[in-house]
Every structure is written in C-alpha cells, then in structure tokens.
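Data deposition worksheet. Section B asks for the primary sequence of the deposited chain exactly as it was used as input, without tags or linkers unless they were present during the calculation. Section C holds the resulting structure in token form. Section D is free text for depositor observations; keep each observation to a single sentence. Incomplete worksheets are returned to the depositor.
Section A, Depositor: J.P.
Section B:
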Amino acid sequence: MARNVRALFEWYMSRQLSCVDMFVNTLPYISNPIKEFKDYHQVSWNRDIYPQFRGVIDPTEIAFYVDLIKERHLVDIVDLGLGGGQEISGIIEACAQDEYSLHSHEGNEVSEDFIIQSSALFYRKKQEVLIHRANWIELPHAEPVYDHDFDFAFLTGNSLTYIGGGTREYTKLSQAAVVSKFARLIRPGGYLFIDTRDYDYIRSLMHLPADKILEEFKFPRTPYYKGTNARITVFPAYISDTVVVLHYYDTQQKVWAKLDLYPIYGQDMRDILSRDFTIEKVYRDFEEGTKEKSLFVQYLAKRK
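Section C:
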C-alpha cells in the first residue's frame, strides 16, 4: 500500500513539473525570457525597445485625433504621457496643414529617456511643445507649473496600467486617483482620450500553453499597433488577475525587455471614468463597435 502511495505521489509531482514547462503562467517567467528566447540579453524597454516597436506614426491615427479635435472645436491640448512625442507632434503638424489653429500644445512626462526622445523630435520638427516634468500623482503640480486648463487631454500606449499593485481593488483605487488628477487639468466640457490594453481578453489566455498564447496574441496592423512582426514579438509571459508581465523580444538584435503592468478591466475602467467624466464613445483598436478580440480599448470621456 505504501509503495502504491509513493508511486502515486511521484506521478503527481511529475505532472506538476510538466505543467511548469507547459503553461506560460509560472513565476520564473516574471524575470526571465521564455525558452524560445533564453539566450537573449535583457535591455531597457524605454530606451532600447520602445523606439523600435513604436515605429513611424501612422497618418490614419493622426487623422483620427485631428478629426476628433476639429469636430469639437478643441484648441488647448496636452499629452499626459508624452513618451517619444510622436502623437502630439503629428497632431500639431496635421492641424497646421489643415490651417486649424491650436492655442497651446503641451506634454507631461517623468521618464528622462522619453524626455530626451521627444525633445529631439520637437527640435527636428521645429515645434514648440512645453514639457512639464511631473509624476501623475503630483498633478497639477509640475515643473514648470501648469498655468491653464485644457480642453483635450490624451494618454495612450496603455500607460495608466503602470500604476497599481497588490490587489485588484488597490489597483482600481490607485488608477482612479490618477484619473482624478487628470480631471483637474481639464476644463468642464473638455475631453479625456485614454486607452488600455484589452485585459479582459488577456485574462482569457491565462491557462493556455505558451505556444498557444504566442499564436493567439498576434494582432494585425492597426493605426496604433504596428503588429507582431519579424523583429518584435510581444508576449504576455505572466498573467494573473492583478499582474500582467509583457515580454518584448527583438529578434534582430537578440535582446528583450519586460513590462510589469497592473491590469484594469473594462467595467473597472468605466467605473473610474464615471467619477469625473461621462463616457461618450468606446473604441476597440480605433474602431467603434465590438470585436472578437482587440489589443487596445480606447475611451473618449467628457469632463463633467
């Protein structure tokens, strides 16, 4: 009897170890590349991956923003997470070509890498964009100070979900506090355009094998997302209800980087926005309507 119990235990443990190899959702993948890319060297996502991954901005993305701005007669704009500066630079350029005058165009950023990238872009384009250095939690205080409100603020690139941790409720409270800070920079009747990854879809992949996730997490090119391509592979290496770890593998340079994100789900995001805003439209990958799966969900919300 004892021998049978021992054999059963050994069989059970062998099954558990095989699951570690089979399923993506294992703790070693938080800080290590998956086996397909085990020899890759880790680098900075902000400095080494983002500029390659983001690529040249798509004209249809800029047209989307410009149409939204012009239809609502918005003239004071701020990019709440400047990043490399491509979006606001493209908006300024397109508005000028359409002879549509913006009163002010400013950006908020805390990452020194992104400030360097965006400043270089604005210099090349001969664009004057005032960059405010500040953490979101410190808003509206910044350096230099904000001296007026805006009627269009936007935050793209899934940036809000860098905030959070611990439990789902803590993440929701933390992100709600940041959105309320954003609201203080937007005049009543103004707009906030904000996106997140489709974490409801990502969560549905939680228990799939790694090779299946690699297959399911491929998306076609959209105005914002350049698509998984021959150079950059994006892979959700760890998925839980409270943490998603994304890996970015540059197959040309043989390097990789990771992002630890705190997911916010669709209903939670609607709850957060409804405190200071009225949600006017919801887009999936810049398209209205439902989709079987989407990479990003965008919200256009009007300040109460």
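Section D:
The chain has nine helices and twelve strands.
The chain has a mean pLDDT of 85.
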